[in-house]
Fold these 2 entries.
Entry 1:
Amino acid sequence: MNAGDIPDAPAVGGFAASSEGWAFAGALTLDDAAKVLEASQALPLPSNGVVDFGGLMQADSSALAVMMALKRRASAEGRTLTMRDLPGSLRSLAVVYGVENLLD
């Protein structure tokens, strides 16, 4: 049985771009982090620098890796990104790994 067969499993997540910035919805775990990051490369970074994670349904440390990769991309492009509406559990995980300052 795979995650698609489980009714309560969060859908593989992704970013959607709008004038409000990027919004993430769905799951961001080891199973789908590489796909999510690859898909994000096709989108121009949000002009306002906002990435909203209010729709994040499930996450693990892979979500932090994706966020750090996005921050590196923004830095390489001379831009900044602000991560908003992160779940408390993800912020706690960032503290454990000592990377909480990279999420602001």
Entry 2:
Amino acid sequence: MKTQKSRYCVKGMTLAVSFLVLSACKSQTVKMIQSQTGVTAECSGSSFGIGLFLSESFVDGCARVYENRGYVALQR
């Protein structure tokens, strides 16, 4: 009996952790400045669940484009 209760407890904990991971939310912002002109730009993205990695990839790609144009990241 005790082992069956333990199995249910582990399954319940696994289910709870799975819901937390899938419902996680993230937002990321990178502020950029063009050092010669002082013009600023901002790359930002937000997502939840499995899309967390897509958001980070999008923001990194955006920041690279601005860096290629002479911008420098102020803060990440």
